[in-house]
Amino acid sequence: MLPRNISSAQLLPFAQRAEQLGFDQVWVVEDLAFRGGIAQAAAVLASTTSIRVGVGILPAAARTAAFTAMEAATLAQLYPGRLDLGVGHGMPAWMQALGVWPTTPLTFLSEYVDEVATLLRGAGVPHATDPDAPLTSLDPSAVPEVAPSILLGVRGPRSLAVSGQKADGTILAEPSTPEYIHAALGAIDADGPHRLVAYNIAAVDDDPAIACAAARPGLQWVAEPDAAPHLDPVDISDEVRALRAACASRDEFVSRLPDSWVARLALVGTPAQVRARLDELDAAGATDHVLIPVGGDPLGALPSLARVLPPR
Asked: Contact, 169 vs 194, CB < 8 A?
């Protein structure tokens, strides 16, 4: 993952270094007040040669389906087969503050995915407010030969069900434990092939204690209400929440997390230990892994994370 707060001077070198080290994908982040996902994806695609770029995630209500499809189609034409498009509800509080939160979020997201996918295939969709008006569609010259995959970045069981019905795959935010992946797949219940992209905080070191210490700050939100779907399936969830309740701050909370809990909630340890954990996530149903670097030097963290890559 290309961290949302990485310095502008490191943004492109990070993606280029990831490609040099042998990573298959780099995922950019669109969060309100940071950087735009489409702009970052375009810059990364232009500055690399083969690495696949994922956008995680575009809040659907902030852009019309037509404009999302137009932007995605442009990148897919310029860089065929290298773009994955992540879409989601967006953080409700942010979308409400912007005045764009839909009255029926599930229906809105379902229809949005249908419309974007239809436009990317070169077909048309009915006019939003006038069914008798001409269909909205991309110009034939703008339709990509290889349409990007559309993945939904969602959490709740009903939203996951929409992803299983409508999308090419699902993006699971961190922490993506085997237990959470299993629960999410049960809600997704896709009829056919469905990618499952698992985000996780990651730190690799020959000394597992050093790796755990590095990963702890990335887990400061794990006991907050928004992360409940991730934590609920794990058998230490009550203990994690009790520890958070006993701490005056998130900093104190993460400093007191036992190494054994950190190892359950992040990808940490020696290269062999992290590879073994990745195998567990694969067995649970993950198809793609996104490693989230921690600390003040994400570019410097890449070589250590690359130690878990399979030999080429």
From this structure: yes
